[in-house]
Design a protein that fits this description.
With 160 residues, this protein is α+β, with helices and mostly antiparallel strands. The protein is built from five helices and five strands, in the order βαβααββααβ.
Length: 160
């Protein structure tokens, strides 16, 4: 199913990946999440294959977002208990036009299908052909940024 939805409406990890669903859940919980759009893997496949109607669908949604944009991978099985794809899939920043968006989607798709990503997938026992869903999100201009762990990221223990 080729779909694009506002992040706040991304509920299905099998369509939009864990990153998009997590960002959507955070937004629904009232956290300050930059606005964005979740693209299903088959929609990204269609755009990469040259489907102009698919690109137009995405462009219409994305035009409403403040620019510049980040185009981020949200592969269906990208990060989980058994695997982390940190550094395998690209994130493209400062995307400003429809042509930049098309190029960024192509680059993210190709990064998920690169030799190194396929080799890693095989090593951790995952599919060799990922469904590369994508998050397109407005960039912020923060004064500071960081990561907060509420539990030990390895053991899950509450170590406050």
């Amino acid at each position: 199913m080729t779909t694009a939805v506002p992040l706040v409406e991304a509920h299905d990890e099998s369509l939009y990946g864990a990153k998009a669903v997590g960002l959507g859940a955070a937004a629904r919980a009232g956290l300050n999440v930059p606005p964005g759009v979740a693209l299903s893997g088959d929609l990204v496949d269609a755009i990469v294959a040259g489907d102009e109607a698919a690109l137009a669908q995405v462009t219409t949604l994305v035009e409403e977002l403040p620019t510049p944009l980040a185009v981020r991978s949200s592969a269906v099985d990208e990060d989980g208990a058994e695997a982390s794809f940190a550094g395998q899939h690209l994130t493209l920043l400062n995307v400003r036009s429809a042509e930049d968006l098309r190029d960024a989607l192509n680059q993210v798709w190709w990064s998920a299908n690169s030799d190194s990503a396929i080799t890693y997938r095989k090593r951790v026992g995952l599919f060799t052909r990922p469904s590369i869903a994508v998050v397109v999100q407005s960039l912020l201009d923060p004064q500071a940024a960081g990561v907060l762990f509420t539990r030990n990221p390895v053991t899950g223990a509450d170590e406050r």
